[in-house]
Design a protein that fits this description.
Blueprint: H1 12-21, E1 23-29, E2 35-39, E3 42-45, E4 52-57, H2 62-71, E5 74-79, E6 86-91, E7 95-98, H3 104-119, H4 125-131, E8 139-144, E9 148-151
Antiparallel strand pairs: 1-2, 1-5, 3-4, 4-8, 5-6, 6-9, 7-8
Length: 169
């Protein structure tokens, strides 16, 4: 018996925006509901947005990594700097692993995209390189399956849940 695929939460154009490499802020919380938050230094989105991996520098996000390790809860906001088009994804199944050499091309692709995105709002690539600086041996990958999606683009739909998309899978 084939297990049904998870629903597709995001429209294809939004998945494409996220996959291109835009600003990503990763958050979680501890047992007392105190938040932890950190900017991602890389992202990887599968073709339909069913599996997301965000990368953070462990040395800068110890509390975040501890919180996700203890409860599996994660929320990530993806936002395109020039347009402020934004989406928030939430999940309770986050898994953490150390980044490897195989992740380096993903991190480099993200850096190049973010240099272009940040340049569109008037900042030099040097700022982006400083903001996303990391050592590969310090990076962890956080992978999750989105369970909830919210439109966070400023405007009348901000905060509204996004309806599941039809899937051919």
């Amino acid at each position: 018996m084939k297990t049904p695929a998870a629903p597709v939460l995001l429209p294809a154009d939004l998945v494409a925006m996220m996959d291109k490499g835009v600003s990503a802020i990763v958050a979680s919380r501890d047992a007392a509901m105190r938040p932890s938050i950190m900017r991602a230094v890389g992202t990887r989105i599968d073709a339909q947005g069913r599996e997301i991996t965000v990368y953070v520098a462990r040395s800068q996000s110890r509390q975040l990594v501890q919180d996700i390790s203890s409860n599996g809860c994660v929320a990530v906001v993806f936002s395109q700097p020039a347009t402020h088009r934004s989406v928030q994804l939430k999940a309770g199944d986050a898994r953490i692993r150390a980044a490897t050499v195989a992740d380096e091309p993903i991190l480099q692709r993200y850096l190049r995209s973010m240099e272009q995105e940040i340049a569109l709002v008037g900042h030099a690539p040097a700022l982006t390189r400083a903001m996303l600086a990391h050592r590969l041996d310090d990076v962890v990958a956080i992978t999750f399956t989105p369970q909830q999606a919210y439109d966070q683009t400023p405007g009348p739909r901000a905060g509204q849940s996004m309806p599941s998309q039809e899937s051919d899978a």
